[in-house]
Amino acid sequence: MTLMTRVLSVAALICATTPAVADEFVTATSEEAFEDVTFAVESAIVGRGLVIDSHTHTGDMLERTRADVGSDVVLFDGAEIFLFCSAEVSRKVMEADPTNIRYCPYAITVYQRPGEAVTVGFMHRDEPTMAPVNDLLQGLVADALAG
After folding, report:
1. Position 21 pLDDT exceeds 60
2. Residue 14 lies in a domain
3. Please, what is the Cα angle at 122 between 28 and 14, to 5 degrees?
4. What pLDDT shows up at residue 147?
5. Residue-wise pLDDT tens digits, 103-114
6. What distance in Å separates the CA atoms of residue 51 and residue 10, rounded to the nearest whole number?
7. Domain span at 127
8. What's the rounded Cα separation, in Å, for the pair 86 and 52?
9. 37 vs 98: CA distance, rounded Å
10. Gyration radius from the chain CA atoms
11. What are the CA-CA distances from residue 32 to residues 16, 59, 119, 120, 145 (Å)?
12. Is residue 102 part of a domain?
């Protein structure tokens, strides 16, 4: 058996034994100012006693490098991503399935396309063991947009 045949056999086996997962990017919109929505998301996360590991300014980076990559398209008026974890929720989902480590840290994205409302979103993981994370993220977005 050649190396290529072995690689293709392993790839076929992985595809045959890996369940299809239909993750979904869940979003909600707000007519509030971008800065107010990002502050509300940050406050919702911190308000639950969670620590933000990283707060990326993705929109600033894309705008700053737009000409450098030869583009004239303005993608966002603002775009930021909050990365964080919950020791309690993470332990629960990883005790149920240790491979859930691949989803940590969790992210909430806030962005605004030119001329549009602000969008807040997160990846909803379509695995039963990830339900606590989905609930946490949904709750944080609801808290942020409620007030």
Report:
1. no
2. no
3. 140
4. 72
5. 999 999 999 999
6. 40
7. 22-146
8. 10
9. 34
10. 19
11. 46, 18, 10, 12, 9
12. yes
**124 beta partners:** 24
One-letter amino acid identity for 27?
A: T
Confidence of residue 22 (pLDDT cuts 50, 70, 90): confident
The token pair at 34 is 């971008």
Q: How many other CB atoms are found less than 10 A from the CB of residue 133?
A: 24
Q: Global pTM? A: 0.83
Query: Would residue 53 count as lying in a domain?
Result: yes
How many domains are there within the chain? 1
One DSSP character per residue, 60-97 reads HHHHHTTGGGT------SEEEEEEEE-HHHHHHHHHH-
Tokens 């639950």 identify what position? Answer: 48
Contact status, residue 46 vs residue 84, Cβ threshold 8 Å: no
Contact (Cβ atoms closer than 8 angstroms) between residue 121 and residue 41: no
- How many Å apart are CA 137 and CA 27, to the nearest integer? 11
**What mean pLDDT, rounded, does the chain reach?**
89
CATH number, position 132: 3.30.310.70
